[in-house]
Design brief:
Elements lengths: L17 H14 L5 E6 L2 E7 L9 H9 L4 H6 L1 E4 L3 H13 L3 E6 L4 H9 L3 E5 L6 H12 L2 E3 L5 H20 L7 E5 L4 H9 L4 E7 L4 H8 L24 H9 L3 E5 L1 H15 L9 H7 L9 E5 L6 H8 L2
Parallel strand pairs: 2-10, 3-4, 3-6, 4-5, 7-8, 7-10, 8-9
Antiparallel strand pairs: 1-2
Helix pairs in contact: 1-2, 1-7, 2-4, 2-7, 4-5, 7-8, 8-10, 11-12
Length: 329
């Protein structure tokens, strides 16, 4: 086992499926109220914004965390879980672990926002810190699993996580249909490792999927263009989109994205800040920079939209001082 790569800790025979997404959506619906689907007019065109920033942990990550951990066997649950996260997935795992009575350890970067570190600990999880530039969180997690045992609950490279995140699409489609719209024909999603984008690609097979990343952390965009998995070129590249700072996608995510013809788009710091302000001014929502990346692509005109376009506002866990700085800029 000591020679295994982190990816080898994920069951190679378990692939994410539309049926799995639908099952995850039913599990989430039984547990959590729907998040609002809000119309927003941008340059005369109305798009539909899924306010996942209003989840109990402030992020869509609660979906995948619950789907994965509620499927653990009694033996697996007793052994505990190890997760890797920049902050939002950490809270999703910690929230599910607390509700299910499971011990959770989360590997998080030492420079993660203080509020995300504090929230994860407050939910009862143990936090193990690593250096984002010099260490690999996946290697740190694999070492912990060798020493302690347990199940890896990866932030995006896991079939259950992908299916759970895809439940956003199932829920949004039903909300659009209730408004007389067949469902989204285009989905613009914030993208870090590709868990949400892959889940949406499975959930909405007839929709075009656009994955949006911040500049400097555009590995998924470059990977899809190249036809092979590429890594972030500079792990020290500064960004306010801490939720989207992943070094590279995993094969399980890339396979879904590539098969569905997903394309990537990159947004700048100023474009993201514009989107954060717009969400606050027009939707009265607190959206973190990483959670506003998809909206940034729309506001900046980098993605053409229709009257059936779904935009994810994927998280709202932002430091109050940082948020105040952005909206008063």
């Amino acid at each position: 086992m000591t020679q295994q790569s982190p990816e080898a800790l994920i069951d190679p025979d378990r692939a994410p499926t539309l049926a799995g997404v639908e099952r995850a959506a039913a599990k989430v619906a039984a547990l959590l109220p729907q998040t609002p689907l809000l119309p927003l007019e941008v340059d005369g065109q109305t798009v539909w914004c899924k306010a996942e920033c209003l989840q109990p942990i402030g992020s869509f990550k609660i979906r995948g965390g619950w789907h994965r951990m509620s499927d653990l066997t009694p033996e697996e649950a007793a052994a505990g879980v190890v997760g890797v996260s920049s902050g939002n997935h950490a809270q999703g795992v910690a929230w599910a672990a607390k509700r299910l009575g499971i011990r959770a350890t989360i590997v998080m970067p030492s420079n993660a926002p203080a509020m995300k570190l504090a929230a994860t600990r407050r939910l009862g999880a143990e936090v193990v810190l690593y250096d984002r530039v010099t260490e690999s969180r996946d290697v740190v997690a694999a070492k912990l699993l060798r020493e302690r045992g347990g199940t890896l609950v990866h932030a995006y490279g896991d079939p259950w996580i992908i299916e759970g995140q895809g439940s956003v699409g199932i829920e949004a489609k039903a909300q659009m249909q209730a408004r007389g719209i067949d469902g989204p024909d285009k989905v613009i999603a914030c993208c870090g490792g590709g868990g949400l984008s892959a889940g949406l690609a499975l959930a909405l097979p007839d929709a075009e999927i656009v994955a949006v990343e911040p500049e400097g952390w555009d590995d998924v965009t470059r990977s899809l263009a190249a036809g092979e998995i590429l890594s972030v070129e500079d792990l020290a590249y500064p960004t306010e989109c801490d939720a989207l700072q992943t070094p590279q996608t995993w094969p399980i995510n890339f396979a879904v994205l590539e098969a569905r013809g997903v394309r990537g788009v990159v947004v700048t710091r100023s474009e993201v800040r514009d989107a954060v302000r717009l969400a606050f001014e027009r939707l009265h929502l607190v959206v973190e920079p990483g959670g506003a990346a998809a909206l940034a692509a729309v506001v900046a005109g980098k993605v053409a939209v229709t009257d059936a376009t779904l935009v994810t506002l994927s998280g709202g866990n932002v430091d109050p001082l940082k948020f105040a700085e952005i909206i008063t800029e």
